[in-house]
């Protein structure tokens, strides 16, 4: 009856999640219609013996709804985590696994978060998706893993991030690029 | 902001600059971490957070900033809209409404917390956890530290008589 929903819940994102969801919704429609006809029979035809079956179908309906909502919400939580992990632009590989509605949820979420962060003290706000770890040193040695191009450091000076180039840069500026896999923190 | 001004005035390469910068980064980290924690809790318990705000009495101060409240409302609306459009509106008519207050777990007010007493408290009633126990009364001496169920001392946290650590 779970229709593999539980399997999908544990497995993370599956491309055919829409198919599983559709099956559950169809099953719910079928159960509901069976119940409607049985309820009419029980009322008008005096078929009190149908009541346990009606109750059972209702329980199934509630369970299907609970599993569906839990599964969908769990996906949302993972998508939410993507904003904190990857930033506001998601890699295409991940977007491929998201439905249009999930993308819309993500866009609303990141807009809401941006509005909130802009309101934090001062004119520019505070980007709380940075500074995820306590600072140990001001500058860190980083190696560039992919070609990125010009990257502005303090005082308007900029560095050219070419693949395999190494730089000694302010830690806080590098955090997001490290998370995106463009820079690598070199620990000597 | 104050420290950023100082930074601009100091000479480049000055040791003061480095230390200032480091301190700024530490402050930024602590601040960001604190605000992240708040946001995480708001997201985790969003129907309850909003319900608490809705039922707040006149004169009682809010535990949310206005911006956090706006964020919480947007989070709820966003999630409700999503669930409705993707699943709920395709379900039988009598099942289309989900009470998020009932489905989303509440914060566990019975969890144990560490606290330090700032103002002496007398005759705090500690309710039993199991049926075999009976409730009893304790005094909280100023400066003492305790590990106690949150629910027992919740009003004292709000009044500032104790401080969670």
UniProtKB/TrEMBL annotation, chain A:
Residues 36-120 form the GINS subunit domain. Its main location: nucleus. Required for correct functioning of the GINS complex, a complex that plays an essential role in the initiation of DNA replication, and progression of DNA replication forks. GINS complex is a core component of CDC45-MCM-GINS (CMG) helicase, the molecular machine that unwinds template DNA during replication, and around which the replisome is built. It comes from the Eukaryota. Component of the GINS complex which is a heterotetramer of GINS1, GINS2, GINS3 and GINS4. Forms a stable subcomplex with GINS4. GINS complex interacts with DNA primase in vitro. Component of the CMG helicase complex, a hexameric ring of related MCM2-7 subunits stabilized by CDC45 and the tetrameric GINS complex. This is DNA replication complex GINS protein PSF1. Residues 136-187 form the DNA replication complex GINS protein PSF1 C-terminal domain. It is found in: Chromosome; Nucleus. One of its GO terms (biological process) is DNA replication. One of its GO terms (cellular component) is GINS complex. Belongs to the GINS1/PSF1 family. Keywords: Chromosome, DNA replication, Nucleus. Pfam families: PSF1_C, Sld5. SUPFAM superfamilies: GINS helical bundle-like (SSF158573).
UniProtKB/TrEMBL annotation, chain B:
One of its GO terms (biological process) is DNA-templated DNA replication. Residues 107-165 form the DNA replication complex GINS protein SLD5 C-terminal domain. Keywords: Chromosome, DNA replication, Nucleus. The keyword Nucleus applies. GO terms for cellular component: chromosome; nucleus. It is found in: Chromosome; Nucleus. The keyword Ribonucleoprotein does not apply. Pfam families: Sld5, SLD5_C. Belongs to the GINS4/SLD5 family. This is DNA replication complex GINS protein SLD5. It comes from Equus caballus (Horse).
């Amino acid at each position: 009856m779970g229709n593999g929903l539980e399997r999908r819940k544990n497995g993370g994102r599956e491309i055919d999640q829409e198919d599983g969801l559709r099956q559950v919704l169809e099953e719910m429609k079928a159960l509901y219609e069976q119940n409607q006809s049985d309820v009419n029979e029980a009322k008008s035809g005096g078929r009190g013996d149908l009541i346990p079956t009606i109750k059972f179908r209702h329980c199934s309906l509630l369970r299907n709804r609970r599993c569906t909502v839990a599964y969908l919400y769990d996906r949302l939580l993972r998508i939410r985590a993507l904003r904190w992990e990857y930033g506001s632009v998601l890699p295409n590989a991940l977007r491929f696994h998201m439905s249009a509605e999930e993308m819309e949820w993500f866009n609303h979420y990141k807009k809401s978060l941006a509005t909130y962060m802009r309101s934090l003290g001062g004119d520019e706000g505070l980007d709380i998706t940075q500074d995820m770890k306590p600072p140990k040193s001001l500058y860190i040695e980083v190696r560039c893993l992919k070609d990125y191009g010009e990257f502005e450091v303090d005082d308007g000076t900029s560095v050219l991030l070419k693949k395999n180039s190494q730089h000694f840069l302010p830690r806080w500026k590098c955090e997001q690029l490290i998370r995106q896999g463009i820079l690598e923190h070199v620990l000597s | 902001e104050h420290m950023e001004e100082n930074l601009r005035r100091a000479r480049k390469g000055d040791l003061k600059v480095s230390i200032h910068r480091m301190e700024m980064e530490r402050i930024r980290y602590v601040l960001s971490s604190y605000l992240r924690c708040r946001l995480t809790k708001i997201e985790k318990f969003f129907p309850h957070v909003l319900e608490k705000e809705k039922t707040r009495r006149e004169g009682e101060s809010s535990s949310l900033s206005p911006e956090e409240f706006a964020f919480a409302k947007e989070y709820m609306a966003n999630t409700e809209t999503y669930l409705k459009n993707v699943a709920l509106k395709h379900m039988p008519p009598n099942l289309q409404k989900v009470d998020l207050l009932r489905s989303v777990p509440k914060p566990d007010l019975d969890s144990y917390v560490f606290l330090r007493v700032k103002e002496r408290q007398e005759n705090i009633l500690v309710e039993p956890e199991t049926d075999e126990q009976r409730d009893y009364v304790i005094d909280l001496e100023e400066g003492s530290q305790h590990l106690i169920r949150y629910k027992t001392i919740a009003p004292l946290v709000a009044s500032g008589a104790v401080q969670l650590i």
